[in-house]
Amino acid sequence: MDSLKIDTSKKWDKKWRIVIFDITQLKTLQRNAFRSKLKDLDFYQLQKSVWVCPHKCSDEINLLRDFFGLSKKDVRLITADDIEEDSFLRKVFKLNSR
Questions:
Q1: Residue 36's CATH number
Q2: N or C: which end of the chain has fewer CB within 10 A?
Q3: CA 35, CA 33: separation in Å to the nearest integer?
Q4: Could you tell me if residue 8 is inside a domain?
Q5: Structural domain of residue 83, as residue ranges?
Q6: pLDDT in tens, 32-56
């Protein structure tokens, strides 16, 4: 798990990967560890339980779900063509303007 990385070498496909989660208080340890791993993977925290990444990451998110015993109801991955006012995100991730 410590060596888990997202491949950032490919050209950006102009899609955002958005991870949203709602993990019950009963799973506080899993929630905190999951959040910490998203930070390690260089996701940007857009809102409290909403994290963004411009790279394909479905395999990594599925691995994290399995590792922490979380379901697709607990953690959802959304691929989006657009996030309003995303110029600051493109700067954060050092992406070209559209």
A1: 3.30.70.240
A2: C
A3: 5
A4: no
A5: 16-92
A6: 999 999 999 999 999 999 999 999 9
